[in-house]
Amino acid sequence: MDKSKRLFVKSKKSIRRSSPLIQSGDRIDYKNLSLLFKFITREGKILSRRVNKLTLKQQRLITIAIKQARILSLLPFVNSSTFLKNAKKKYAKKKYAKSFPNAKQKYAKKKYEKSVPNAKQKYEKSVPNEKKKI
């Protein structure tokens, strides 16, 4: 063969990457909405296997889970943009909730104290002495 013909020969190996969207610990289930939202377009269509880069078995499980969630009205059949934005925020995975269980409470308390100056003193003045229990 000529060298010019060799340059255009396609390699016979097909490289398929493993899916970055599904980790080993993720359960493909109709209740796992944070995972299911990754495989739905804005219009509410299920993304194809070629786009998702999933295996055949994973794609089947995803489609079944999405269809079950739609029937149980956890997901809409046709998405509106406002529903999709709100739902993604609502069902997003919280990364640090387990490692810092009291962080949210402390932050909320500090935020409230900053927004209302002398909040504790105002509360004590407004509530009679009998009902004060902090």
TrEMBL record:
Residues passing through the membrane, by range: none
GO biological process annotation, one example: translation
Keywords carried by this UniProt record: Chloroplast, Plastid, Ribonucleoprotein, Ribosomal protein, RNA-binding, rRNA-binding
Coiled coil (UniProt feature): none
Source species, domain of life: Eukaryota
Annotated stretches, region: Disordered: 108-134
Principal location class: plastid
Gene Ontology CC entries for this record: chloroplast; mitochondrial small ribosomal subunit
Subcellular location: Plastid, Chloroplast
One Gene Ontology molecular-function label: small ribosomal subunit rRNA binding
Summary of subunit composition and partner proteins: Part of the 30S ribosomal subunit.
Record-linked HAMAP family: Ribosomal_bS18
Family: Belongs to the bacterial ribosomal protein bS18 family.
Annotated protein name in UniProt: Small ribosomal subunit protein bS18c
